[in-house]
Amino acid sequence: LETPYPIFPNTDHSTIELEGQSVLDIIAERQQQLDGVQHEILDLEAVLDGVKSHHQQLVEKKEKITQSMNLHKGFISPLWRFPNELLSQIFHRCLPDTLSRSDGPMMLLIGICRRWREVATSTPSLW
C-alpha cells in the first residue's frame, strides 16, 4: 500500500503530520484493513474445510457405489447362472489327472468364492 511519507522519514520529529493525517491514523487504518483481511481469510478457511469434508464424503460415497455396482455386475455374469453340476464338471476338467499331496489346484478352486467352495466341497469326486 502506498504512503504519503518518504521511506526514510526525518526522525527528528516526534509526530509527523501530512495533509491532516498523522502516521498513527495511517497505522490505525492499516490495522483495520489487516483485521478485515484476516477475518476474510478465516471465513475462507472455514469454507475450504467444509468443501474438503464434503469432497471426502463424496469420494467415500463414490467408492461404496462402485463396490455395490461391481458386486451386482457379478450377479449377472453367466458364470453365476451355471448349474452346480456343470461347474463341478468344469472343475474336474481343470484339475490335473493326479493330484499332488498338497492339493494345490483344489485349494485354489475353493479360495475363489463362496459358491465355488460350496460346489467343490460338495463334490466328493474332486477329493
List keywords for this structure.
127 residues, mainly alpha, two-stranded antiparallel ribbon, 5 helices, rod-shaped
Question: Can you walk through the features of this model?
Answer:
- With 127 residues, this protein is mainly alpha-helical.
- 65% of the residues lie in helices and 3% in strands.
- The chain has five helices and two strands.
- The protein has a two-stranded antiparallel sheet.
- The chain is rod-shaped.
How many DSSP H or I helices?
5
Shape: rod-shaped
Strand order of the largest sheet: 1-2
Average pLDDT level: 82
* Proportion of strand residues: under 5%
**What profile does the largest beta sheet have?**
2 strands, antiparallel
Reading the helices and strands in chain order gives EEHHHHH
Structural class: mainly alpha
In short:
The chain is mostly helical and 127 residues long. The chain contains 5 helices and 2 strands; from the N terminus they run ββααααα.
